[in-house]
Amino acid sequence: MEEQSKYAFGIDVGTENVRAVALEIQSQDVMKVIAYGEAKNTRGMRKGIVTELSGPAEAVDKALKTVESMGGINVDNAYVSINGSHLASEKVSGMIAISQGTGITDDDLNRLEDTAMSGRISSNRQVLDVVPLNYTLDGQSGIRSPRGMMANKIEMVANVVSGLTPSIDSLGRAMALANLEVLRFVPTAIAAARAVLTEKQMENGAMVVDFGASTTSVAIYDEGDLQYLGVVPAGANNITKDLAISLELNTEAAEEIKLRFIAPDFAETGKEITLRHGGETINFSQDEVNLIVKERIIDIFVHVNEHLKRAGYAQKLPEGAVIVGAGSKIKGLSGLVKENLKMATRIGVPGAGLSGVIEDIEKPEYATAIGLALMMADDGRFAGSDEKKEKKTFDLFGLFKKKK
């Protein structure tokens, strides 16, 4: 009997764009990108937070239609990104006694986790992940996996990732409106890290910065584990708005200038540039554009550095910073960030070890969606390969209809 194919899906719900990726899992080490889709998220989100359910639902539905058509599959459930300044991580610790003569069980570890978090996470927050950082058995620390070991007392230090319950609930309701079951919500920078960091880099110490449209998310790794998560409520759109205001342009023209006319390393050129955009002739100084963009990037990464200091990792990450997201396409970004953070910096490109149509999405803006699908595969939460069947989907009027 032919073995049923297995699939894993990642959906990155951004403030401006939704990106979805489908992986076919041929074995633990052989994974193939079979489909991807992208749709504009034109309304209903602000700085990663859902403000209207139907907008994100419509964008997700459009992206999934593309994936389903390209891959000949159904996408009924997936790992989904979550973002916003309400996300945070907090270190917790706890200790419990173990019954004499028995090895440490999953029930013991669950009880220890509950003890560590008791009273530490406020009632209006929902836990997204608990990352054990260290176990101590009868005074011996540095234990990574204590299952089956013998001890009278076990202690744990863990990093708890959480977000505001109303924000998580609203995103879940928007996904339900798109007829999608969310298997797990994952903060964008954590998902991106799965796609652009190696285990060695996580062990040595590295930071992923998801430089998105409206937010800039930070995930810091050391000794193989997530040590800190934070979000700056500003992103690449702030640069576009600065240009639009200063040059008296609309945001479409400002976005084109941002991506096309930054001088290498933001060097002074003395150039006056003429651009035709939408039937309009625009004249501007490249040096002025350089200055506007540079000042805003520095401002955003000053806040990133504040997160580094808060976590105790400023200038202490040997593997440096890896930048992903749509904002990473700005020319000269990595050099400017390296100068300001005083650490090695590179643009992260996902796709290592993947086959299929990966060459189409080996782009920093797809790091989160790819990472989400990889995490779903890591967790063994596969979707089956039933033939593409008729199913309900979201329409513009908030009703449901059958796909044709």
Described by strand count, sense and barrel closure, the largest sheet is:
6 strands, mixed
Shape: globular
> Which strand-content bin applies to the residues?
25-35%
Could you name the ranges where pLDDT drops below 50 across 5 or more consecutive residues? 385-404
Query: Alpha-carbon distance between the termini?
Result: 31 Å
Indicate the radius of gyration in whole angstroms: 23 Å
Helix content: 25-40%
Instruction: Give the total of beta strands.
Output: 21
Q: What's the average pLDDT?
A: 92
- Total count of helical runs of at least 4 residues: 10
Summing up helix and strand content along with how strands pair, one would put the structural category as: alpha/beta
Strand order of the largest sheet: 11-6-1-2-3-19
